[in-house]
Amino acid sequence: MSNMMAALEKSRPEPGLWRVEAPVPEIGPDDVLIRINKTGICGTDIHIWNWDDWAAHTVPVPMITGHEFAGEIVELGRHVTGLTIGQRCSGEGHLIGHESRQSRAGKFHLDPGTRGIGVNEQGAFAEYLRLPAFNVVPLPDAIDDEIGAILDPLGNAVHTALSFDLIGEDVLITGAGPIGIMAAAVARHVGARHVVITDINPDRLALATRVANCVPVNVAEEQLEDVIARLGMKQGFDVGLEMSGNQAALDQMVEALVMGGRIALLGIPPGKSPVDWLRIVFKAITIKGVYGREIFETWYKMIAMLENGLDVRPVITHRFPVSDFREGFEAMLSGRSGKVVLDWTGSSD
Ligand code: ZN
Q: From the CA of 232, how far away is ligand 1's center (Å)?
């Protein structure tokens, strides 16, 4: 192995990413080195590409970006046990500390000192990634590299969807981005009755119906109260999964929920936004904020469901060799894509 590798880097504080030659990371005693086969482009990577306010305040340059990946282990730190060279894997991109109360209680996803690969630490858009062995998630044969590369966002969808009991429930999902769409598939898989997904982008609503057996609603054209009547629901939705970060979507969700309804919030609002707390209090609504994936319970459930027939592959709409990464980002920036996966296996040819 040469000690240099190809990588996609935020090299300068301006829009774009650049293909660079970077040193292959050196691993510590508790780390593994992973050869990357496929990566997914995340909304987070788009923020970094665009170099918006969040990115400019969060991401130091230079930084190899990317955190959605699948690959195989090529080197083990000397303390690492239970993993093998050649093992196919994905992994949790949140690097946690072990000192906080939450971590010591085993609630690793609630560690306040979490650092993200591709955001605060060198990331996965590279031929090689260093990762703590703790973060590695081995992949069974049933999960190929392409699906392995989108387990991070699927994990967001699973974490959000499994926040509340969905068996026999009517579920409203606001926001038909890839995570909202995958959450619809998960909700159906675990036994929800009606799953309605809203957006104002017809391409995304059409994609939602190709991935999940769900009811698409363009809220620019149709009212949710009409949908509730059309589906023969008595009062409204039992559970809401907010995936858009859009103020109007949250208001619509609160209106469309039953008394005592439950909401899981994954969508990130652009800033402070007014909330009609009076409605939320008088409807006795429970709200849960969702961050990342439960480490590692979400991973366990997600892999079990994929082995058990959950199929989200149609959410991947674009595939490019990494040499064409600009086209991949353009597809994402168009707002018309589902997941975009980059293939690194030919990158050194
Ligand atoms: Zn992501």
A: 36
* 72 shares a domain with 163: no
Whole-number pLDDT of residue 54:
93
The beta strand positions in 169-256, using DSSP E, are 171-174, 195-199, 215-218, 237-242
Instruction: Establish whether 286 is a catalytic residue.
Output: no
Question: Which DSSP string do the residues of 67-110 spell out, in sequence order?
Answer: -EEEEEEEEE-TT--S--TT-EEEE--EE--S-SHHHHTT-GGG
Of the candidates 47, 109, 159, 189, the residue annotated as catalytic is 47
**Same-domain pairing of 160 and 146:** no
**What pLDDT shows up at residue 10?**
98
Query: Is the pTM of the predicted complex or chain greater than 0.70?
Result: yes
- Cα(108) to ligand 1 centroid in Å equals 18
168 & 109 share domain: no
Between the CA of 107 and the centroid of ligand 1 the distance, in Å, is: 20
Q: How far is the CA of 136 from the centre of ligand 1 (A)?
A: 16
Where residue 348 falls among pLDDT bands split at 50, 70, 90? low
**Is 44 in the active site?**
yes
Lowest mean pLDDT among 294-298, 299-303, 326-330, 345-349: 345-349
**44 alpha carbon – ligand 1 mean position (Å):** 6
DSSP string, 260-272: EEEEEE-S--SS-
CA–centroid distance, residue 279 to ligand 1 (Å): 32
Our count of domains for the chain comes to 2
Please report whether residue 27 resides in a domain.
Answer: yes
39, 44, 174, 298: the catalytic one is 44
- Judge if 144 and 162 occupy the same domain: no
pLDDT band of 88, cuts 50, 70, 90: very high
- The verdict on 103 and 209 lying in the same domain is no
Instruction: Report pLDDT for 1.
Output: 58
Domain that holds residue 203: 156-289
71 and 109 share one domain: yes
CB 122 within 8 A of CB 130: yes
- What pLDDT band is residue 346 in, cutting at 50, 70 and 90? confident
What is the C-alpha R_g of the chain?
20
